[in-house]
Amino acid sequence: MLSRADDYPIHQTPEPIAVSGTDRNFYDRYFFSAQSPDGSAVVGVALGVYPHLNIIDCAVSVLHAGQQHSLFASCVLHGERMDLRVGPVTLDVLEPLHRLRLAIAPNETGIQGDLVFTGRAAPILEPRFTRRIGTRTLMDVTRMTQGGEWAGSVTAAGVTHELAGWRGTRDRSWGVRPIGAPDAQSPQPAVPPQFFWLWTPTAFDDWHLFFHTNDDEHGRPWNRAGVLVRVKDGAHFPLDDARMGQAFRPGSRHAAAARLEARLPDGRPVTVDFRMGDDFLMRGIGYGHPTRGHGMFQGEDSLAHEVIDAGGFDRANPANVHIQGLSTAQMVIGSAAPVTGRGLFEQLAIGPHAPSGFTGLFDLAG
Questions:
Q1: Residues paired with residue 176 on neighbouring β-strands, in sequence order
Q2: 268-323 confidence digits (pLDDT tens)
Q3: Which domains does the chain have, with CATH numbers?
Q4: Read out DSSP for 57-89?
Q5: CA end-to-end span of the chain, whole Å?
Q6: Residue-wise over 39-52: b if at least 16 C-beta within 10 A, else e?
């Protein structure tokens, strides 16, 4: 199948661009987050292309005043991976690796807008994520992450938010991970589910902090990295010996506060203290959603609206375990004065994790 992308010199295999290897779980995704300076509102977006399922979908969710309003759009891709339009949403790459535009035309969900992301520095490339269950590949993913600033506006629930002064993060990931309908047959012998994930992109006036970890049940990282990016010149400073301690909310798997400790290559210590405010539920943009999950077939062209009570959700419900805490962070580098920033503290803990005290599939902090 030929598509418009085949007229660009971007091929890396003998196949047309519409073909992405042989794994039906191949995906190609954009994620965006925009947060107001005071943390009172946040916008999250996930737009994914699933070449072997021939689906493109998108979710836009706006959290404000304790409610999270979500738009879900999905349609058949028809093999055109360069056409990033789905329902009322259009994504344009205005300047690769620097500037992107998300346009949401007026529609029945009441969510609309015109949002432009501009990178404050070049993206970072995270270590490749490769995870297997026995002999089967669960994840094989490359991801880049970028801090930026926003312009434009977005409207939800009758409230228009002007994005001037808002900061946030976007990422691009592609590769293999579970998407769409679950696999019909699991590998044997059965392996109990376990996945521990933290991701803390945080914007300061002069810096962007990126830290993530994927841990096994013993707390040993199978993928962990930390980087400080200096905004004025885009210089990257890797964080050595990075480790995160968390103080959990009782009756949940969610942190109320956390501390990152690390050191720069020149030996200076770095500490970052996080305090969580409101929570953004990731099912509001499709992650783990029971009917609007990424890559699920919704028909030729589908549009839906959903409202989540983000101020009173059940933290003990496994459907709500994946969240992004809107965080205030205080960072100290060496003997310098503390600096304050805002960001996301994304958390997903399934199964045991010894450092957190979790021993079962969904036992909760005391």
A1: 26, 140
A2: 999 999 999 999 999 999 999 999 999 999 999 999 999 999 988 999 999 999 99
A3: 27-179+191-356 (2.40.370.10)
A4: EEEEEEEETTEEEEEEEEEE-TT-TT--EETTE
A5: 55
A6: eebbbbbbbbbbbb
